Amino acid sequence: MTFSKPLIAMSITLALTGCSLSSAPSDDAFTLTVAHINDTHSNFDPVKSSFKANDTLVYNEFGGYPRLQTMAEEYKQAAADNNDSFLFLHGGDAWQGSAYFKLNEGAMNAELLSRMGLDAMALGNHEFDLNNAKLNTFISDINFPVLAANVDISKDPDLKGQTNLKPFVVFAFDGNDKVEVKDLTNLPTDKDLVAVFGIALDDMPNLSPNTGKVEFHNMVESSQATVDMLKAKGINNIVAVTHIGNAVDLDVASKVNGIDLIVGGHSHTLLGDFTNIGHDHTGTYAQMVINPNGNSQTCVVQAGQYAQAIGQLEVSFDKQGDVTSCAGLNTLLSNDEYYHSPMREADSKFSAADSEKVVDFIEGEDNITITDEEASMRSLIDTKYKPAVDKAYGKVIAQVPEEINHERRPGDKGTDEHGSDVAVLIAAGQYYWANTPEVKAVTGMDVDFALIGAGGIRTNIEAGEYREGNVALEMLPFSNFMSVVPVQGKDIKALIESTITATLPAGAHAGKFPYGGHIRYQFTETKANQSGKLDFVEVMTGTASNPTWTPLQDNKTYNIAVNNYNATGNDGWTPLFKAQQKNSDRVDLAYVDGKLTGFKVKNIDEVNGKYKVRYEGKAPNCKAANTRCNTDAQAMIDYIANEMPVITPQSYEVVTFKRAM
């Protein structure tokens, strides 16, 4: 059953959280209710999770598209019953992240998202993970617009004719009645007007190499120009749906006049205080940011990740379109079946009496609710898509006695100063694989250590049976190939220091955070959310059972194993690009006709904002039927199958990240 609380009655929500301004209620000319999600990443099924009910640790599941559908429909119905103006927005990155996407490449996303009743979605970086022809098909197949005011698609052969990728969309409201306005020269005068425009990352080519010939323009300049144009037309209530990260949302709000509300994505930030259920306080929901004119303000929200939660808020405007109040909250959507063990064995299931206590606890909390899965969407997933996914997972390669956690940045979401236990296992696996006789015969190099960016890892290692597909379809789904790169120690230090520093601001995108295998470091934050210093970097020269550590030498060349995405310098791993800009002895690894094949790199050029790898001979053709490029996942599969029949966290730590108090 669904235990939906009066959250949808926003008069209660207004008292709970968010910020209200000083204008009197009589100044309010218009109030808009907004529901929002972001970074759903093809998590159509629920995510296994846990929370604390008072002092009891509860293993449950959160979200999934059928639960989002149920809650979105409740919000919409409540708005209709109250004759409230209502929008449902998506902050981007609907693509990638699960086995479903690997098999269906956007088609399933289009079908399920179109059932949700979305009004608009931001253009995320992972929407470029395939190619622009497939992105074009996705955008054509959905029944809502994708928004990005700072992109130019006119030169891209696949997207240039796409009419559903728009800079903005304008809605006219008469209470709950809503129509899209397409003629800005003849705006209705008897309705409340709301413009929603999109902003994508302006460094998208560096983050998503498959952007084709799409051009991306400055986020602040494009935002201000769009707002100015809309206001000149007479539209004063303005919402931005963005995929740039919470920290950047706050920065844009401080530099642009006239955005009333930013509905964000990209940094996976579940804004709000969730310490009541044993989770984190991850930042203010509905934070108000003063615009550069010193008068108007922007309200900023974001709703986490992986379809686990949905946000809802009310924003009120005066006659000039300035925000007078903005408040709401994120709500995690739980099931009603609970276990004492992460393995979820039958004998660990809560008794009826204990379950009732958990239900009573949830009923008393505002930011978690029990939600049924919408039946027709659940049936569609189970009958049309799930059988092929289940088949694709392959054979069992290990057992996992207890869930192993992945968190991008140490200290976030209850993790300690060492952060992800998953990332260091993957890096250790890639180090192991790169030093196998088969790989060394191709590269001719002994590898000293491995590095991995946290954003390329998409799941925890869940308790229970572990299959090949858990690695290749879910945890490492991007089909990157492994690279072995000779790099000097000073470049490694620059890489670690610069990538960590970039993640320090509150709400920053932390996907670039570095983890390693057979290398360890300590970084100390000296000025909270701004700066820090790299205390030491050491290479492991012993064994797992008897590790010994040797300081990294600035002028010594080390052979490192790293996936090609980061090896090229993408996502802020710029020191690796610079180290290979003139020449490189790097070897990339893929299977061609079932045989491991090396592709020697000559150097890396920067072409129109993108890093372009130049090979001495042919480049790996990952689109070819005879070529398999996901050697990053294969490395981990081989490591588990050969070395870890029971997967447990590594016995020693490799990352220490000391946060400023």
Automatic annotation (TrEMBL):
Organism superkingdom: Bacteria
Record's keyword annotation contains Cytoplasm: no
Coiled coil: none
InterPro entries in the cross-refs: 5'-Nucleotdase_C, 5'-Nucleotdase_C_sf, 5_nucleotidase/apyrase, Calcineurin-like_PHP, Metallo-depent_PP-like
UniProt entry keywords in alphabetical sequence: Hydrolase, Nucleotide-binding, Signal
Domain Calcineurin-like phosphoesterase positions: 33-269
Residue ranges of domain 5'-Nucleotidase C-terminal in the record: 425-575
Similarity remark: Belongs to the 5'-nucleotidase family.
Protein name: Bifunctional metallophosphatase/5'-nucleotidase
